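Reopening closed ticket. The problem is back. First fold of the pair:
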Amino acid sequence: MKATLAALIFALTGVANATTIISQNLQCGHSQIQERVGKLVEQVIRQNADIVALQEVCSDESLDVVALIKQRLKERGFGLKFFDRHFTHLGYDHFDEELAIFSRLEVAEAEKGNLPDSPLRRGYLSIHAGGIWYVNTHLTHEAEASAVRFQQMDFLARRYSSQAAMVFGDFNSGPESREALAFLAHRFQAYFPGPTWPAQVPRHAYDGFWGNFFNSRPPKIQRLEDIGSDHLGIALSF
């Protein structure tokens, strides 16, 4: 009920009742992965997050990174009620690259699948909690693949436009891009906190949120501290 009450209070009064989602591209590869996971978990606890959505979680026979994160969250007192993972493709021809989601909200249902037209197979992983769909995704990254990203965004927008929904993750393009029209056409609004690449000056904000149920003032969004990934994490509270 927490998410439902938060959405209702926010719509009627504009006063936030904190439900917090963190999204983080963890960066595929095991270099300093223990340190990255440790910093991620501390960030989750510090932000008092309800949902943690991850992209580029890469495991192999030597280390199951999703299981490691789950264990560390439990050790730090994150009241985990649901988690799921979705394999998308082989990262660097070696790692099982996955999406992952962890929730301390009660989850009524979950679904996952693949996005259309992906040169590398891309997917989505979603949970339905408190009457809201929370959808974690990672879109095609090639700069010339605007048309592909449009098809992927359009697929997600159509799938969830008839219900309260928030789609978030690494979109590989910002809200000003041509492909963003796919979300805008279905009355989703963009909530992007600004550049999310810590290692260089980006041209776009690649990580963000698209939501269709904020009827008053916008929710609070922020960039999070660098955990050693090539993306900064982002958080949204409402």
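Second fold of the pair, where the issue appears:
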Amino acid sequence: MNWSEEHSTIIAGLDLGTTKVCAAIAEQVAERPPRIIGVGQHPSEGIQRGAIVDAEKTVYAIGEAVRQAELMAGVEIDSVYAGISGEYIASLNSTGMVAVGGEGGWIGAQDRARVL
């Protein structure tokens, strides 16, 4: 069996930093080590000292970093392993879904409030 005939898994990672947001996409094939197939980054204007101070700017930076990584990798991702550090960070795993009808497909504060 060659590389293309084996089952592969796409893994995506995201690092939210004070200066930049970085995204990486890897392909895992069988028992081989993951291979990085796409990377992206964008300045992080919405995060200061590990705290998200502007959600819209942070969302934009994440989107741009992920878009660049997806373009390079030639795949679209639907989930990521995310990392962020800071003294006020707490997390919980959650899944939510809500229909959005915003102009231009933008997700606004009301949409975010409904899904949470």
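Update: turned out to be a display glitch only; the data is intact. Residues 27 and 78 are 14 Å apart (CA to CA). The two ends are 45 Å apart (CA to CA). Please close again.
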